[in-house]
Amino acid sequence: INQQLQLTFDQNISKGSSGRFYIYxxxxxxxxxxxxxxxxxxxxxxxxxxxxxxxxxxxxYYITIDPGFIVSQATSLAFQGISDVNQWRFTTVIxxxxxxxxxxxxxxxDVTASQSLILTFDQNIQFGATGPRLYxxxxxx
Length: 141
What we know:
Layout: E1 5-8, E2 13-15, E3 20-25, E4 30-35, E5 41-44, E6 47-50, E7 60-65, E8 70-72, E9 89-91, E10 99-103, E11 118-121
Antiparallel strand pairs: 1-6, 2-8, 3-4, 3-7, 5-6, 7-9, 10-11
């Protein structure tokens, strides 16, 4: 999971000359961090963009930012940072699998009774704890 992090301010910003941007695992261990000189953290207008290593699915992360990591372009005043571990906290997920191909195709006619039913998904899947179940709706009934 590698979605870019974004933080939007009420005025144009730049990276400051000190401090770091931190991403932590829920247990408080550092996942990664960036100094102001690191190209993984960039600004454009009012937004800070942060690229990072892939997150683990279903994991909880939180962000802290040192004072001075971001400054106002208009006043050169430093953003006071984020030190509260609950201020920017999130849990990652992976989207549910989606069917990309049906065989026979949807609304097919003249399909033989012995035709295999094949569904192709956009990611690898496995059967749940209850095993596979197939429900067929017979339109004639």
